[in-house]
Amino acid sequence: MADIMILGPDASWSTHPEDIQEQLNVLRGLGLEFDVQVWTDPAPLDGYRLILPLVTWGYHLIPDQWQAALDRWEGLPFANPLSVLRWNTDKAYLMDVQAKGVAVVPTRMTDALTPADLDAACVAFGTESLVIKPPVSAGSEGTHLLRNGAAAPASALGQRMMIQPEMPAISSEGEYSLFYFDGVFSHAILKSCASGEFRVQPQFGGQSRTVEAEPAMRALAEAALAAAPGAITYARVDMVRDGDAFRLMELELIEPFLFLHAAPDGGRAFVAAVQRASAG
Known about the structure:
This protein is of the alpha+beta class. Helix content is 28%, strand content 23%. It has helices at residues 17-29, 63-72, 82-89, 93-99, 115-125, 168-172, 215-226, 268-278; strands at residues 4-8, 35-38, 50-52, 108-110, 130-133, 144-146, 161-165, 175-181, 184-192, 207-211, 234-242, 245-252. The protein starts with a strand and ends with a helix.
């Protein structure tokens, strides 16, 4: 039995299974010793010095089971505390971050989306182009771009949704991700859309490349991390350019893909942060 447990996806998540093994192989190659367990497995996790939900991909597909698991894990030593995981599960946390003075993509929340909500958002944001997405989601699942006042799909109406203005820089430039381990900056990537797309994920044709993080990016990322309700062992901070500044899109504190191949040290800072956390 290793000292560290990494929690992985259950059978409900089948997309890109090779990425999971690739990520685990990278960590083993860096000398990290760990066991792996499906996160929906009710087997006790007592005895592990540290638990990472690093590949619990797809938890948003079965949110009730995820919330039950968080309750079951209460008191266990997670790399990012359970209070952080609970907070980060629902993208309404953006409202908390914004209230602490961090620049986020303008966001309105609705418990049951209606056409009137979209009309009001267009007025509030001063645009006819909106993005709607579920607050508990991943990989742009359930995300829709509504340009020129287009109606929302029937599947979104009546659902709890976030409403944001389209950020033009996503399509023209891309989305930046900055990675921090134990609060220290590691590396940055730029994820760009395929032609005609507004989503940057690989399944939609998105590409990524390593970039230098501008001082303003790092300032935003560090302000956003400071707004989280607990110490952070690992984090991905997603942002978009807005004129001469940047706005936070998401804080990924549960199961972000870490792009360790893009880190100058190949991921050694991440492994060192995990080992420090496991040592107490």
